[in-house]
Amino acid sequence: MNTRGRRRLAANSLAILVAVVTAFPIFWMVLSAFKPKGEVQSLDPRPWTAHPTLESFRQVLSVDGFGRYFVNSLIIALSVVVLSALVVFLAAVAVTRFRFRFRTTIMVMFLIAQMIPVEALTIPLFFMFRDAGRLAPGVGLNTLASLILVQLAFSLPFGIWMMRGFVAAVPVSIEEAAQIDGASRSRILWRILLPLVAPGLAATSVFSFIAAWNDFVFAKTFIISATENQTLPSALLVFFKPDENDWGGIMAASTLMTVPVLIFFIAVQRKLVSGLAGAVKD
Amino acid sequence: MRIVRRAAAATVLAATCLAAAACSPGTALPAGDKAADDKTGTLQVWLYNEAGNAAKEAVVSKAVAEFQASHQGVTVSVSYIDTDASARAAKMKGAFNDPNSAPDLVEFGNTDLPGYVAAGGLAEIGADLDKWKDKGDLDPAIAKTAVLDGKTYGLPWWVAVRALYFRTDLFTEAGLAAPTSYAELVAATQKIHAAHPDTFGIAVGGKYTFGALPFVWDAGGDIAAKEGTTYKPTINSSASQAGIKRYTDLFGESGCPVQQCADLTGGKTVDLFAAGKSAMAILPNSSRSKVDAGPVNGKYGVVPLPGEKPGSIAPAFAGGNNLGVMKAAKHRTLAVEFAELLASPAYQEQMYDAMGNLPTLKPVNAKVAAKDAFLKPFTDTIAAGTKFVPLDQGWAQIDAQAVIPTMLQQIVTGKADVAKASGDAATQITSAFAAR
Amino acid sequence: MSAPTTTAPAAPPSPSGRRRGTGPAAPPRGRRRPPLLLLLPAAIIMIPLVAYPIYQLGLLSVLDFGQAQASGGVPTSFVGLGNYQKILGDGQFWSVLTQTIGFAAFCVVATLAVGATLAVLLTRVGRISRLVLTTAAMAAWAAPAMTGSTVWSFLFDTNLGLVNKTLVSIGLNGFHEFNWFYDKWTSFLIVGAVVVWHSFPFVMVTLYAGIKAIPTEILEAAALDGAGTWATFRRITAPMLRPILTIVVIQSVIWDFKVFTQIYVMTEGGGIAGQNLVLNVYAYQKAFASSQYGLGAAIGVIMLLILVIPTVLYIRSLRRTGNEL
Fold this sequence. Notes:
The complex is a heterotrimer of chains A (282), B (436) and C (325).
Chain A: H1 3-34, H2 37-40, H3 55-61, H4 66-97, H5 103-115, H6 118-135, H7 144-169, H8 172-180, H9 185-214, H10 217-222, H11 232-236, H12 247-280
Helix pairs in contact in A: 1-12, 3-12, 4-7, 4-9, 5-7, 7-9, 7-12, 8-9, 9-12
Chain B: H1 2-20, E1 41-49, H2 53-70, E2 74-82, H3 85-97, E3 105-109, H4 113-118, H5 126-130, H6 140-143, E4 147-148, E5 151-152, E6 155-160, E7 162-167, H7 168-173, H8 182-195, H9 209-218, E8 224-227, E9 230-233, H10 238-248, H11 258-261, H12 266-274, E10 280-284, H13 288-292, E11 300-303, E12 316-317, E13 319-325, H14 332-342, H15 345-355, E14 358-359, H16 362-371, H17 376-383, E15 386-387, H18 394-400, H19 403-412, H20 418-434
Parallel strand pairs in B: 1-2, 1-3, 12-15
Antiparallel strand pairs in B: 3-13, 4-5, 6-13, 6-14, 7-10, 7-11, 8-9
Helix pairs in contact in B: 2-15, 9-10, 15-16, 18-20, 19-20
Chain C: H1 36-60, E1 63-64, H2 67-71, E2 77-78, H3 82-88, H4 91-124, H5 127-142, H6 145-155, H7 162-169, H8 184-212, H9 216-224, H10 229-257, H11 261-266, H12 279-286, H13 293-320
Antiparallel strand pairs in C: 1-2
Helix pairs in contact in C: 1-13, 3-13, 4-8, 4-10, 5-8, 6-8, 8-10, 12-13
């Protein structure tokens, strides 16, 4: 084997090694979820199990209203993804395609919005939603709409920052050509620009999906009496009690929380890589 | 810089707002003392979701059926809330800040009471309870934990006290009897650890506040003492320091190795004892099921935690849960009646059978103790006198800021000596009480 | 994304190298009015839900406002800078701040180093290896912070952990029942590893995409000129990746400075005697857990200022060198 081949082999081996190390905790999580209770707690952990069981999963799935909470979380995450993509797209076009006063200020504001710990904002937000609920009960506390709105708001700043690059990467000449051909402003926006930045939107939606799916700070603050509107992570938090050391339950709950995100990822993976590539293409 | 100008403008705006008091952050008007009092409809009840909750749910649904049968047109809706400290706090704060989301009746930890009262969350139910036929049977020390400034805000539902679990097989082998004094306890850790180097003499934890406090109380110390209307820290008094030293001396070679035990909570010490890893542990009676499920089943006994003086019992922390009526309740009378039903002798006994929680009514306590010899050390401990944390909302802050665990951990890890660590704790306790 | 051939007459007046030039796709000058319609949806959502709460946060920070004020009917009082004085006068705040900056810096540097190295590695391996590594990275990326932290804690558990067991089995008996979270630095190391594990995939995938987007002709030309790997990287790859690196760096700094879940879960609320506290956990423990909203708001504002100042300075320096946001 020549040097080149040897180097390539080394690179490939290294990549596989890193992949194994990276995926190992996930593997261990799923494995522990399938192990019988006694084996998870065993002082002699083994990287396999001879007796896979659904015991832990059954325990987690037996949480009252599991299906309902799952659907709630899915509704919230998907609504946030779609709405956020739309708003982010428009705002990103505004800050990249136009030069106006306060443009930099606005961009800095988007950064500032991400710098505040959300825990600190829950109290003002709580009172706002309570008061909003008096005027419009549909968006008050205890509703899924309140969670969608607040998740949407907090997904925008990062999304707009990310999308800026994608929009900038589309040559202005394309739009100008369309304009000369007589296309209207809105046609250019929706029919020409939007499809071109779609991979970028896929990339940013990964972030909004993860944030919305994993949130429990807002969920536990806003959903007080309407237990039917609980989200999955806040319902599964019941299992995360290190004092009780029910590692089987914890791992099964973790697996069930992670899988939907993983599926979403794999669904957009192709778009994600090509989308991110688009951001830097010149 | 533009941003600076912007910030300056915002500051001016904020100042104007303050002057006009027009845009202060939202508040909830405190619900009037006379809450709504519908006699029909749905009674909302929040109870704790505990380990092994199915047994609790079974007992509670019996009570619900009984209550609905005797109250026409009333439905009782029970939700079991997550007991994780932050999730629980978020839920309760939500109920305080938005009276529309508040239930009628809540179960709450008795140490949370002062904070909930300050938040305007709980209704005073002293007058209602005076009419309750079982009131006279409440253990007085425990009843006191629901009283603040002479007003009663809760109905004690159950208590849990801790006692000393010890391995009978290891003690017999070492030729030892159950310890009856602190000195004997220490001697036992040394003798057993010498014979079994892999076994810890006793399982204690750096975050186990309620395992440590009995030593402080036994030495005549306390966290704080009330002087006039305010609490003053006494955690650094010489008596308290002696007690702290006795507890922290248990960390080490023959007791509980620091590396393993400095970060343990009370719950983790249960696991150590249940796994057969330690010869002794300070655990509540409810840990029994967990211990029985492991390898030391049938090989352990329980005695009251001995004090310094031979034959004495170190005062235990009277932990437990109360039932309280929310100020924003819409069914005040019904809520009191349902609380009285849950705390009635019959249901207290069933709750003991289901969850192992000790009853708060003395006759029921005597009854379950007669039924189950295992309980004797715990009822003896209660009879010897229990203690409590300062009944002040400052405690919520002391607890949240982990003042006591930090003090214990600084000592056992050698970062500070007892005098320095307890002095730091006293400073933080002072500021916690002053903050109110 | 190739431009239609009809664009020639309408070529933009700005230089074509806009990513390195005077700014993003600089449109014709003179459009100084904000495109209100495009910004409207974002404004409708963010002004009430983000800007107003931030303003309220500033207001809260100068008030004595706790649960008793929120719902107990206790009057709210103006305390001026009292909450700030309390925080800045707390000796623990300063040690936590130093620790937070150090920890965040470590995480940012490690994340970028790991992410960048692996991005370069991805360009050198075969299709299958690339797919395997990307998928594994996606899995780490997808894991919620809560579950990721819990799983890692389990792996490093004193008694049940696979790591201790493995180390003992290869003869390192010192790791028998070794408590990784006893020592301040091993705790930070493991928590840092988890933070990096969660965030390197974003950096890796983004930079890989960036590298792939560099036209091969440029790289070939460089090779013909006799530039080595390092020179190529420094002169061509790095400058072309700069815009994306800017975003990645700013975002990583913000995220890692605010880290909460990993520390809170893995060190059980800040470690032994608070040795592993970072600002966000400190704020929670000091203020929010005991409902001292005014005090918590002051910590939030201080954290904001600590992040805003370097960001604004950075953006100004970008401008001075002719680069626009």
